[in-house]
Amino acid sequence: HLTTRSDVYSFGVVLLEVLTGRRSMDRSRPKREQNLVDWVRPYLTSGRKLRYIMDPKLAGQYSIKGARAAAALALRCVSSNPKDRPRMPAIVETLESLQNLKDMAALHGAWAPATAPASARNGVNGRTKRDSCGAAPKNQAPVASKGDHQAIVVA
C-alpha cells in the first residue's frame, strides 16, 4: 500500500532520472539496464563510478560534489527497506544545501544544456541559421562547442 515512504522512493527515482537523463524503465536498453534503480545501484555505491551514470548531455559541466550528494540522497530514497528512506524534511534540507555549492558551472553562467539541435542555433563561427524566408533569428544566444556537445552560453 502507498505511504509517505513510497512517495520518497518515487522521488528517489525521479532524482535518478534527472541525474542520468534516463527513464525509470526503458525496454529499449540491454536487459541489465532496463530498470533504472537496478542499473544505477552498483554505480552509486562507489563515488568514483558516478561519472558513468551521469547524463551525457551535461558534458561534465556539473558540480561533482553536488552530483555525489544528490546521488547519495537518491540511493537513500530508493532503499529497499522503507525504514531506511529519509523523510521529506531531510530531503528538502539536503537539496537546499546543494543550491549553495560554488562549483555549479551552470549556475555561474559557464554552460547550460543545449535544448535544440546545433543546426538550429547560431554558431560561434558567426554563421547563422536562417528561417524558411531567409531571415536570421533575432535575440538568439551564441553557442559554444565542447567536444561532441554544444551548449548555449548564458550571459
From TrEMBL:
Residues 1-98 form the Protein kinase domain. Gene3D superfamilies: Transferase(Phosphotransferase) domain 1. One of its GO terms (molecular function) is ATP binding. InterPro entries: Kinase-like_dom_sf, Plant_Ser_Thr_Prot_Kinase, Prot_kinase_dom, Ser-Thr/Tyr_kinase_cat_dom. Residues 116-149 are annotated as: Disordered. It comes from the Eukaryota. SUPFAM superfamilies: Protein kinase-like (PK-like) (SSF56112). This is Protein kinase domain-containing protein. It comes from Nymphaea colorata.
